Each structure stands twice: as structure tokens, then as C-alpha cells.
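Q: non-specific serine/threonine protein kinase, please. Structure only.
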Amino acid sequence: MAVPSPLLLLLPLLLCYGVGNVRCSPVHGSNIDLHSLLDFRQGITSDPNEVLKSWNTSVHHCRWRGVMCTPKRPWRVSGLNLTGRSLGGQISSSLGNLTFLNHLDFSNNNFFGPLPVLNRLQQLQNLTLGSNRCKGQFLTHLQILPAYHTWTSPQTFWWNNLTGTIPQTLGDITSLKVLYLYENQLNGSIPDKIWQLPNLVYLLLGQNSLSGGMPQALRNQSSLTTLGLELNMLGNTLPTNVGNALPNLVVLNLGNNTFEGQIPASLGNASMLQEIDLSRNKFVGKIPPLGKLSNLSYLNLGENRLEASYNNSWEFLHSLRNCSYLQAFSLSQNLLEGHIPNSIGNLSSNLQYLILSGNKLSGIVPPSIGNLQNLTWLGLDFNNLIGPIDEWIGKLTNLVRLNLRENNLNGPIPPSISNLTQLTKLFLGGNEFTGLIPPSL
Ligand SMILES: *[C@@H]1O[C@H](CO)[C@@H](O)[C@H](O)[C@H]1NC(C)=O
Ligand SMILES: *[C@@H]1O[C@H](CO)[C@@H](O)[C@H](O)[C@H]1NC(C)=O
Ligand SMILES: *[C@@H]1O[C@H](CO)[C@@H](O)[C@H](O)[C@H]1NC(C)=O
Ligand SMILES: *[C@@H]1O[C@H](CO)[C@@H](O)[C@H](O)[C@H]1NC(C)=O
Ligand SMILES: *[C@@H]1O[C@H](CO)[C@@H](O)[C@H](O)[C@H]1NC(C)=O
Ligand SMILES: *[C@@H]1O[C@H](CO)[C@@H](O)[C@H](O)[C@H]1NC(C)=O
Ligand SMILES: *[C@@H]1O[C@H](CO)[C@@H](O)[C@H](O)[C@H]1NC(C)=O
Ligand SMILES: *[C@@H]1O[C@H](CO)[C@@H](O)[C@H](O)[C@H]1NC(C)=O
Ligand SMILES: *[C@@H]1O[C@H](CO)[C@@H](O)[C@H](O)[C@H]1NC(C)=O
Ligand SMILES: *[C@@H]1O[C@H](CO)[C@@H](O)[C@H](O)[C@H]1NC(C)=O
Ligand SMILES: *[C@@H]1O[C@H](CO)[C@@H](O)[C@H](O)[C@H]1NC(C)=O
Ligand SMILES: *[C@@H]1O[C@H](CO)[C@@H](O)[C@H](O)[C@H]1NC(C)=O
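A: Structure for non-specific serine/threonine protein kinase:
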């Protein structure tokens, strides 16, 4: 982008002083921008890297670090990018006067205090005030395995600490495409108007203290592809039409909240979905069929109160055979009962993670599970499974981690277990196996 040279900048100023108020107005706008930025600078109480040293009036503000302007006179501020600059302080409400602002990125700093009112920014598309710590990989496959959770240890990370509520007025910025407030301390509920923003593509509000829920009937928001509300205190039931109103959803992460009621059947209509995380909530009842989600690769329903028992409540599992990209699937710590259906063997041959730990599953492990030859992690621990395991175990030659602890499995440890040359963790305790584990393992 062409940055105005000091000489060019002089020109409109001269015109302004020479001609009068009408010709002046664009410059006036630029002046408002200058004062808004200076006001913002005033609110910064900590700037260890002296980033804002360049924010002084001996240089045009369009040349200040992190400031971007429109390419033409009167060079209105169109972008502010101060990501990862270790800045601390409150975000001045003067930013609400930068009416040409298109994107604002203050991620990975140490801002605190309330979000300013920004509803005059009718060109704002991208508002990023969250942390980047989990960005781009906030659905890691490790999250499917809570017991082995490995958060990167908090080191030199910075993240914002914004408090208070999400202003209703954010819902008036109809240009918004990206609202990224991940990992702050925002509380209160998500304003209803946010669910009516017509251009919203990414709504990422995870890891705050938000309460309330989603509207009981969602309007059609076909722009939305990524919805991340994980790690909050959100609850109530999901809107029954969620999957119909959000037809283009690709990522849905509602993990670690207190959502309750049934998983709406309409979710099975959001056919673009690739990643679903509803883990650690209070969902109950039967799981709806999701077989229309042909791109689904990650499905985490762990730690809820979902049910399946002897009769027809396992249809969802049969339906998942159509999800041929499925790589990770967890139903750990729910209320599943009865036998694991044979159709488990029809799941995607791409499946790498299958976790059914901590239910009340009984009967034998269907030998068809041996079809899932790409499995690297299999967790069937803490159930009531019985019988020998020799029919399938030797086929799962890619297993890295196998957990069968605390069941009633029996019979000899099959010699074919030595086929599992990739194993690094093997848990067989709390069963009635006889014999010894081959020394090669
Ligand atoms: C003003 O900013 C420029 C860089 O844009 C820098 O060279 C100069 O030292 C700054 N002046 C003061 C007084 O900080
Ligand atoms: C924002 O600034 C950071 C650090 O200076 C830079 O790496 C990044 O590319 C910038 N982002 C945009 C969209 O300009
Ligand atoms: C915004 O600009 C108006 C002038 O247009 C001014 O009166 C007001 O103080 C500014 N607000 C902030 C918060 O800077
Ligand atoms: C929004 O801004 C962030 C940070 O500058 C950037 O990483 C992201 O790609 C932007 N998203 C869109 C859709 O423009
Ligand atoms: C966030 O703010 C709280 C107090 O409001 C403070 O105790 C905490 O250290 C802050 N965290 C960060 C990462 O700045
Ligand atoms: C949000 O938290 C603040 C303290 O940071 C508290 O005073 C306020 O009552 C809370 N608001 C809601 C709606 O929970
Ligand atoms: C939702 O809106 C999109 C775009 O405006 C439209 O194509 C689609 O038919 C609408 N869907 C419903 C269910 O109204
Ligand atoms: C998620 O919620 C569970 C309780 O359901 C809690 O034990 C756990 O610490 C939470 N995880 C995180 C990362 O906060
Ligand atoms: C799924 O979509 C179809 C076609 O739009 C509709 O008839 C059906 O009612 C939807 N299912 C649910 C459970 O909403
Ligand atoms: C699956 O993803 C591909 C590529 O992103 C897309 O073209 C296709 O429409 C998706 N399938 C469905 C059923 O949405
Ligand atoms: C197993 O995964 C590999 C990639 O990791 C893939 O190339 C292969 O086709 C998969 N095997 C099956 C049986 O799908
Ligand atoms: C052991 O693995 C080989 C392929 O590596 C397979 O052919 C054989 O059937 C397996 N043995 C058993 C007992 O499953």
C-alpha cells in the first residue's frame, strides 16, 4: 500500500486552510482519526517493546507502526494491527470514531477492561481481540482424550483480559465477518443481535465466562462457517433448528459448557460440518443420525449423558458409516448400555481415534472392530465388556495406544498381540486375562 509522503500530506492541509470548511471535511475526518489514535495511545499503560514510540506527530499517523490507511486521500485509517506487541492498558472508546476501520487485530496483548462501543464502525469486518494460543488448531485431536490432555505449559504467552459483557451494539455492525474474542474474561450473555449479523463467517467466543444460551429459534445465518463457544458457562437447550439455520457450518465447538437437552436432529442437516465438539456438557437422550455429514472428520461427544441401549438407539452409529472421512470419534463417559453393534466395523477405514471409555457397554467386543485397521488409539476401558479378544486384536497393527482396563474381558492374552508393533501404551488391568504379555511388547 502506498504510504503518503509528508509532502503529499501537506497539500490537502494547505487546501484546507486556504479554501474553507467544505473542502476541509475529508481532512477533518483524517484529523478525527489522528485524535482517536492519540487518545488510544494515552490508554496504553505498558509498552515494553516501545511499539508506540513511533506514534508521534512528527510522522503522519498512516506511517505509525500497525496503522494502515486507505490508499487514497484523505487516508483514513482502515486497519489497526497490534497483534503480539505486549501492550497493556484499556482500549480507549475513541477507537469507535475510526469510522473507516475495516480490520482491527489486538490479539495476544494484555489489554484489560471493557470492550469499547464500536457500532459507528460500519465498515468493520474483522474484529480480533482474542488470544491466538489455540487459533487454527483449537480442535486438536488431543482434546478427544481428556485424560491425556496436554496443554502447552503457560510460558511467555500474552493474552487479553477484557472484562464486562459483549456490547449489544456489536450486533449493529452488519459488515462484521470475523468476531474473535477468544480467551478473555467476558461475562453475561451473547447478545441476540449477534445471531442476526448477515455476514458473520467466524464467531469465536471460546474461553470466557459467558452465560445464557443460544436463541431458542435461530434465524437463517447461512454465512456462518465456524462457531466456537467452548469453555464458557453457556447452557439451556440448543435451538432445535440449529442445523437448518446454519447450513454452511464447518466447525462447531460447544465443548465445556452446560448445554442440556437432546442434540437437535437438525444438526444432521448441516452437511458441510467437518468438526463437531459437544463434549463436557449435559446433553441427554438419543444421538441423532449424522450420516448426511459426509465430510465429518472429528466427532467428540464425550462426557455427556447420552444414551443408547439394547433396542434401536444405536442408529446413529449405523449412520456414521457414510462419514468416510471420520478420523476421530469419542463417546467416552456417557450412559451407553448394551452391546457394541457389529456396525462399528463399518466406520470409516480412516478412523484413527475411537474412544468409548467409561460407559456401561456389555457383551463382547465385536470382531468387526478389526476392520478399523487405521486405528492408532482405541479406548474401551471402564465398561462391562466380556469375552476373549483374540479374534480382532492382531489386525489392529497400527495401534499406538490400547486401553481395555476395568472390564470383564477374559481368556488368554492372544499371541497375535505381538502384531501390534507400534504400541507404546497398553492397559489390560482390571480384567480376567490369563497368561503373560509377550516380552516383545
Ligand atoms: C517518532 O517516530 C519516529 C519513527 O516513526 C522515530 O524515529 C522518532 O524517534 C519518534 N520521535 C519521538 C520523539 O519519539
Ligand atoms: C500484523 O502484524 C504482525 C506483526 O507485525 C504481522 O506478522 C502480521 O502479518 C500482520 N497481519 C496483517 C493482516 O497485516
Ligand atoms: C468522537 O468524535 C467526536 C467528534 O466527531 C467527539 O466529539 C468525541 O469526543 C469523539 N469520541 C471519542 C470517544 O473520542
Ligand atoms: C481476521 O484477522 C486475523 C488477524 O489479523 C487474521 O488472522 C484472519 O485471517 C482475518 N480473517 C479474515 C476472514 O479476514
Ligand atoms: C487478568 O486480570 C486479573 C484481574 O482482573 C488478574 O488477576 C490476572 O493476572 C490478569 N491476567 C492476565 C493474563 O493478564
Ligand atoms: C461480570 O463480572 C463483573 C466482575 O468482573 C461483575 O461485576 C458483573 O456483575 C458480571 N456480570 C454478569 C452479567 O455476570
Ligand atoms: C438462508 O439464506 C440463504 C442466503 O440468503 C438462502 O440461500 C437459503 O435458502 C436460506 N435458507 C433458509 C432455510 O431459509
Ligand atoms: C472442562 O470442564 C470440566 C468439567 O466438566 C473441568 O473439569 C475441566 O477443567 C474443564 N477444562 C478446562 C480446560 O477448563
Ligand atoms: C432436514 O432438512 C430437510 C430438508 O430441508 C427437512 O425437510 C427436515 O425437516 C430437516 N430435518 C430436521 C430434523 O430439521
Ligand atoms: C465436502 O467438502 C467439499 C470440499 O470442501 C465440498 O465441495 C462439498 O460440498 C462438501 N460436501 C458436502 C456434503 O457438503
Ligand atoms: C490409513 O491412513 C493412511 C494415511 O495415514 C491412508 O493412506 C490409508 O489409505 C488409510 N488406510 C485405510 C485402510 O484407509
Ligand atoms: C498379524 O498381522 C498381519 C499383517 O501384518 C496379518 O496378516 C495377520 O493376519 C495378523 N495376525 C492376526 C492373528 O491377526
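A: Brief note, in case it's useful. The mean pLDDT is 88.
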